[in-house]
Amino acid sequence: LHKSLATTYEELARVLAATLPRGNVIIPAFAVGRTQEVLHVLADLVRQGRAPALNIFVDSPLATRATEITARYAAILDRESRDLAGWVVRNKDKVRIRFTETPQDSMAINSVTRGAVIVAASGMCEGGRIKHHLRHNLPREECAVVFTGFQARGTLGRALVDGAKEVRLFREPVPVRASVHTIGGLSAHADQSGLLGWLEGFQSPPARVFVVHGERETSVAFADVMRERLHWPSIETPARGDRHHLAWR
């Protein structure tokens, strides 16, 4: 179950207040969709008076293009998003967003040691410019890393979430002294409640259901909840290497 949006706002506001006077906040985010949502939340926190004026760097050419498209079609967004976008335009001194383009622009951010929110791809820290920002900020205890989405096993992001004291970046060991936070309310995927709500809309149950997404223990737990709530004839959680014969009747 995802955290509520209200809880997400509160957690992020606390991280910003505690970190920015002395260090930077690093936010790994997928370029399309997630970065734009993060920008919305950050701006909304400032508008509500729950965060100070922010210096935000969006360090991903793809995220820049996606944000430009979002802005181009702002008129078809919901009323709340349109109102916030208008407020940001009128208060550029309170929400300063800089989109970096060239590698030189990206490297220049390294000279900023405090007061910056750096949003960069990739979301699981497996590639892209985020790795450079982690290398410069992870060793600093006054900085913070904020994850806004699920981190798959085997990724650098998951290692940080699981509490690694040291990681390897560019073939070199990097100590993890920065604080690491997971803000769980911005996931782009439906949670257990959302999936069950969709499944309960079926007028008749499928003959067989396979739960194949998510880590093993989560899939098994979700299948148990489905059996308890839905009472469908066949709900299975296939494991790697299993074979199932499917045929039309």
Query: Would you tell me the overall average pLDDT?
Result: 92
Strand content: 15-25%
User: What is the structural class?
Assistant: alpha/beta
Number of helices: 9
Largest sheet: 6 strands, parallel
Outline? globular
Q: What's the number of extended β-strand segments?
A: 10
Walk me through this protein's architecture.
- This protein is of the alpha/beta class.
- It has nine helices and ten strands.
- The protein has helices at 5-19, 34-47, 61-72, 79-90, 103-108, 130-137, 156-161, 192-199, 216-230; strands spanning 25-28, 54-59, 95-99, 116-120, 144-147, 166-169, 172-175, 179-182, 209-210, 235-236.
- The strands form three sheets. It has a six-stranded parallel sheet with strand order 3-2-4-1-5-8, sandwiched between helices. It has a two-stranded antiparallel ribbon with strand order 6-7.
- The longest helix has 15 residues, at 5-19.
- It is globular.
- The chain starts with a helix and ends in a 13-residue tail after the last strand.
Short account of what is shown:
With 249 residues, the chain is of the alpha/beta class.
Protein topology:
Blueprint lengths: L4 H15 L5 E4 L5 H14 L6 E6 L1 H12 L6 H12 L4 E5 L3 H6 L7 E5 L9 H8 L6 E4 L8 H6 L4 E4 L2 E4 L3 E4 L9 H8 L9 E2 L5 H15 L4 E2 L13
Parallel strand pairs: 1-4, 1-5, 2-3, 2-4, 5-8, 9-10
Antiparallel strand pairs: 6-7
Helix pairs in contact: 2-4
